[in-house]
Amino acid sequence: MRLATIRTATGHRAVRLDGDSAVETGEADVRALLERPDWAEHAANADGPVHDAAGLDHAPLIPSPEKIICVGLNYRDHVQEMGNELPEYPTLFAKFAPSLIGARDEIELPPQSERVDYEAELTVVIGRSVRHADAEAARAAIAGYTVLNDVSMRDYQRRTKQFLQGKTWEHSTPLGPALVTADELPADPADGGALRISSELSGEIMQDSTTDQLVFGVVDLVVYLSTILTLNPGDVIATGTPGGVGDARTPPRYLTDGSEIVTSVEGVGECRNVARAVP
Ligand code: ZN
After folding, report:
1. Are residues 117 and 248 in the same domain?
2. Residue 8 Cα, ligand 1 centroid: separation in angstroms?
3. Tens-digit pLDDT profile for residues 220-249
4. Quick one: 37 and 76 in the same domain?
5. Ligand 1: distance of its center to the CA of 197 in Å?
6. Are residues 29 and 75 in the same domain?
7. Domain at 219, CATH number
8. CA of 118 to the centre of ligand 1 (A)
9. Strands lying side by side in the sheet with 107-109
10. How far is the CA of 213 from the centre of ligand 1 (A)?
11. Engineering a disulfide at 14: which of 33, 43, 196, 223 sits with its beta carbon 3.0 to 4.6 angstroms away?
């Protein structure tokens, strides 16, 4: 099943994507849908108003998550290009909801940063509350997967040891377009399955890897995070990005006014966003 949050003239709607059409589920967005214990059955049986899938205006998949948790340095090839040792523990940081945009929205390029970079990420969406999970409970808590482009203002990211100020600029982080349940995927990332993950900057391939390069897999991450706090429906876990980011290239490559950045995960979907300078 594939679920999305769309914008309509009268507000957000959570929809089920059925090929060429999108069927309203009666919930305002995918977080509200996932907060129903019967979300999967409810969404599968929904028969609300229908939209043409070609004309959808995608909101961020989860417009207001309780948590957006990001994992840094979690692909073997990216750890190497950044000149780091493989980590013993996950590197964690957060974003806030105002940074999120839809899968086709423009990325705001602030005049204060000259080094705006892209990061394609396989992203877990939580579908039930879980604390102190073992592997089985962690797997059961995963509603499905989506794509997040962890746009990063590298100059701000590197001002101090803490990443946050480079990671949560307003209207910078595409999330979506859809939540895809694991049964739809060619390989299940919870089983360590390899999905191609890539990014393309204005037509040129920049990142091209597979999700079996993850140092900490999706189940490991849910177990680890649920030790720290309760994960709740609609929480978003961006699992890190593979090698090929613009800042690690020679010469470096950054998003500039009018650049188109496409971030994709095989079977999950793609975010396709134009970067736009804002005053
Ligand atoms: Zn990242």
Report:
1. yes
2. 30
3. 999 999 999 999 999 999 999 999 999 999
4. no
5. 13
6. no
7. 3.90.850.10
8. 8
9. 107-109, 269-277, 260-265, 196-201, 204-210
10. 14
11. 33
